[in-house]
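Researcher: Structure for this, please.
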Amino acid sequence: MQQRLPKRLLPVLYVLVGIFTISAEQDIQKIGLVDSSKIISTYFQDSKAMRELKELKDAIIAVSNEIKEEIYELKRRKVDAEKRNDREEVLRFETLISDKEQFLKSYLQVKNKEYKRRQSLALKDSFLLEVTEAIEYIAISEGYSVILEKQNPLFLYYSIDIDITDKVLEYLLERAGKPSQ
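Model: Predicted structure, token format:
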């Protein structure tokens, strides 16, 4: 009986075949890894784009909390109306509460989409260019032939000494005049 590779391992096989094909054509001296999520969280946490994203997130949370407080107050007033057996007032508060809850849901959907869009734009433009330049600088200056994303799930094993994330971060921080971590 012939065994087949699981489908999720096919991309790994393709990468390995590609590396060995390149290897046959030229000597790969060094392969390096970069953890871009670490670079984002460390280097760009203080950038203008990240500050603006934080301000947007804080504003979304503040408005959301304000609306939730209004809903809470309407629910409290509805309970008071129920205690007074004022059916008309109870129905009015139920409608107001429902409207506010629907508004909150819509508001959060719209604002979360806006946040994700702005986050994506902030990370694409200057961020990618700056990180790419830093990776290229470290790769060339230290003789790396291939640099791969560390978070790529295709890796089954790698040695810690090929991870250049800290070197890229140090280079970016040095260029920006910030102290090293």
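Researcher: Any notable elements?
Model: The chain has one domain: 7-175. Residues 32 and 109 are 39 Å apart (CA to CA).
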